[in-house]
Specification:
Blueprint (H helix, E strand, L loop, with lengths): L1 H43 L8 E4 L5 H7 L9 E5 L2 H11 L2 E4 L13 E7 L18 H22 E9 L5 E2 L4 E2 L6 H14 L13 H7 L4 E7 L2 E9 L2
Parallel strand pairs: 1-2, 1-4, 2-3, 4-5
Antiparallel strand pairs: 5-9, 6-7, 8-9
Length: 247
């Protein structure tokens, strides 16, 4: 009995150690990638105190705060927009940014070219179907069609709002899918993807919901034809894509 308990305890300890190693490795890669993207952003845009920036899909603004650290921009000129109203209010309290609560889809309440820069990082791939449908919609063709329509509308809104923009998204061809941390799942048909994620959400260190449609370089060029496309590479593969139109 003691032996059985020790073996079980060892297995649990081993699984826990492995999980911590995975999380540590992924977080290190993510931190390095974000730092590189911030450098790319600042290489393409001059930031002044009066520069007006919209962070679209900002959560609480912590990420854009780190990107803009050390620049002279006034916090009141940074607008953080998200479907989570509590997140943007938290960002207002923490950083002094202007909070904007937005719907899942539709036009934002700003005039054309209101912003000098629209910043959007790891968001456009989630602009697909209503969140209430992401687990029940298993028809892959319908999901892809509806997702592409919303992604096109979202891209048009970015172009409308910003005289310049910076849009980053994970690349579809990268072997490790960034939301699940699993290999090659971006290529699974939707009827296979959803039950897989239902299982891995119980067993794997990274939980996600199937609300994403990853984009290729060709997709990004179609969505942002007046932008340059900058590739972020890791181990010889394109990890993410950045569509950049400087002012």
């Amino acid at each position: 009995m003691l032996l059985a308990w020790n073996e079980t305890g060892s297995r649990r300890s081993s699984r826990g150690t492995s999980a911590r190693m995975v999380v540590t490795l992924v977080n290190r890669v993510r931190t390095d990638a974000r730092a590189k993207r911030a450098r790319v952003f600042l290489e393409h845009f001059e930031i002044w105190r009066s520069t007006r920036i919209l962070d679209l899909g900002s959560e609480n603004g912590e990420h854009i705060a780190s990107v803009l650290a050390g620049t002279p921009i006034s916090p009141s000129n940074v607008y953080i927009a998200d479907i989570d109203s509590s997140a943007v209010l938290d960002g207002h309290r923490r950083f002094g940014f202007e909070p904007v609560h937005i719907p899942e889809s539709g036009r934002l309440p700003f005039d054309d070219g209101f912003f000098d820069i629209v910043y959007c990082s790891s968001v456009i791939e989630h602009v697909t179907v209503p969140k209430s449908e992401v687990w029940t919609l298993r028809d892959g063709a319908e999901f892809a069609r509806r997702a592409w329509e919303r992604q096109r509308a979202f891209a048009r809104e970015i172009v409308r709002l910003g005289r310049g923009y910076f849009v980053q998204t994970p690349c579809r061809s990268f072997p490790i899918e960034s939301h699940s941390w699993l290999p090659f799942v971006a290529y699974l048909p939707r009827p296979a993807l959803i039950p897989l994620l239902e299982t891995t959400n119980r067993l794997w260190v990274k939980k996600t919901q199937p609300d994403w449609r990853l984009l290729s370089e060709g997709d990004m060029r179609r969505l942002f034809p007046d932008a340059i496309i900058v590739k972020e590479s890791l181990c010889g593969f394109t990890k993410s894509l950045m569509a950049i139109r400087a002012r």
